[in-house]
Structure formats: structure tokens, C-alpha cells
């Protein structure tokens, strides 16, 4: 009888953007050559974080019509010493919500992990 392979925890499998690509089967970062040059780094960072969130969430997608479902996201502080992960927070959606996000996580633990492990990509996305 063959042993059943135990799948590692997603935080053990996804430690880099390249790991997230393997996990999701997504292609590498597009060049965004049709986007103005000064916006390309932003769109590249956005793509990276969307792929990372998809990998970490393992198929879970936020249901923005479910006001009781928590959607977790990392929170950051910016100071003179730099950009740093601060905490994980959650929100509920409501019928009047103005936007949704692919950058939320199904658990507080995953939001914390994503905020700490990928802080440089978050910095590229949110500040640069």
C-alpha cells in the first residue's frame, strides 16, 4: 500500500514569488509595455501580490456579498526609518461597499504571514 503524501502547509510551500507562481501555475510578471513607464513598477508589484494572495488562499476567494465573512489584510506603518509590517486587520463587506480586493486573505495568520514575508513587494506596491 502506498503512503498518502501529506501536503505541507501553504506557508511552507510559498516563501517567494517564484513559489507562488509554481503553486498557481500563473506566468511570470508581464512587462506591462503598453503601460506608461512610470506606472510599470506599480503594476508589476500589484501582479506579484495578487499571485501571492491567490497561492496563499489556496482557492479561497472573498465573497463580497457576504457581510459576515471576514476578509483579512496586512497593515503597514511608514516612518522616517522605513516601511514595516504592523499588524493584520479584517473588514466585513456590506452592500454599500465601494470596492473589493484580491489582496485579502482568508485568515489572520495568512494576512500576517503575507505582510511579513513579502514586505518588500508590499512596499513596492504601496509606496513606490
Give an overview in words.
The chain is globular and about 55 Å long. The protein has helices spanning 10-13, 17-24, 37-57, 108-117, 119-126; strands at residues 71-79, 82-91. Helices cover 40% and strands 15% of the residues. It has one domain (10-27, 34-126). The protein has 128 residues and is α+β, with helices and mostly antiparallel strands.
What does this entry show, briefly?
With 128 residues, this protein is α+β, with helices and mostly antiparallel strands.
Strand order of the largest sheet: 1-2
The dominant shape is globular
Q: How many domains comprise the coordinates? A: 1
Radius of gyration: 16 Å
Please identify the structural class as seen in this structure.
alpha+beta
Order of helices and strands: HHHEEHH
Q: What are its keywords?
A:
alpha+beta, 40% helix, 128 residues, 2 strands, two-stranded antiparallel ribbon
SSE map:
Elements: H1 10-13, H2 17-24, H3 37-57, E1 71-79, E2 82-91, H4 108-117, H5 119-126
